[in-house]
Amino acid sequence: MLRARDEKLESLKAVAGKLAHDFNNFLVPQFGYVALLKEEMPGESGSAQYLGAMETATKRTEHYIESILLAMRPERQLSPSEFSLDAVLNDALTRWSAEAPPGMMVEVKSEIEPCTIMGDEKHWRNAVGQLLGNARYALATGGRLEVELARKQLSPEELVRLGLNTDDVYGLTVRDSGFGMSSSVAQRAFEPFFTTRTQIKAPGLGLTIVHSVALVHGGQVELRSAEEQGTTVTVWIPVNGFDARRAMGSGRTGRAGVGEKKKVLLIEDDPLVKEVLRDWLGRMGLEVHIASAPEEADRMMKTWGAELSLVITETDLRGAKGEEIFARLAGVNEGLPWIFLAGKRKPQIPEGAEDRALAPLVMQKPVTLRTLKEVVRRHVGV
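RESULT FIELD:
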């Protein structure tokens, strides 16, 4: 049942992730043109105020899309480090109690053992927050909340049932005595955008985020619930099951001579993104060469490769992947920094790239132009 659920969820996440990726592309020119217009307009003008409102609305859209992408593809922003999950859980429980509405009659019981894991702390803070947020909703009329975090040894039968690669795990359990779920609701509880909390316009991403964060860290999630009997969610986390290796970017200054503009190759096939990045990089005093297709990128690298200071490439292009172009052409100018603009898919860095000091820096969309500007300055030295 768990495997069937996970396969179904992966299909749903793929569709939602593709839509979020496309909307990310739409946000890039919106951020870009607003930034360009704000530079040209007096700060006190009515038009500048309208632009501020547009920017605020765009940032709200960006935040919502980021929530969707975390639920669908948490691997795109993984920053693994060793941290204390017990500290994360205790902090979240303290905030949960402090933010409880006056008169909320809930008994809280916790048994939390020390737990140091390798993973993305921000992702786990989000997942824990989602679990406790769901419990608060279920306990709106009072009841009991139990939170447990303990190291466990799974039996062979449990190992097979959960589909994990190790029997040495931490079990994070959040149990409430709230109103529970019917069997039909429980079967859909992990689906993206499914929610019964329509009166407060909940996005329906809470358990989807928990599921995705658990899976990307090599774990699994179980839910047990019954109407009028409460809900129990258990997250199983391998003690030593997460591979923290990831591509790391490296940078250097460009090679342009005194008085010359530093050359940047932009490999991008989206017309709007291409136009706004060309304008923005040009305003930084860079000479921008644009390739819209893999064959153009090949030709330009062979023409300008030795003189380039930076390459910026989209992850997914029509007819090729950005890392395929990187693998094919990085040797033309060894040590040349590359920046990937990545959507839902994290690029697969060619093996051995780090050893040649050619590993590109990955920037997840949507990318604000201010952030991109700082990264380009660091790499190119303008």
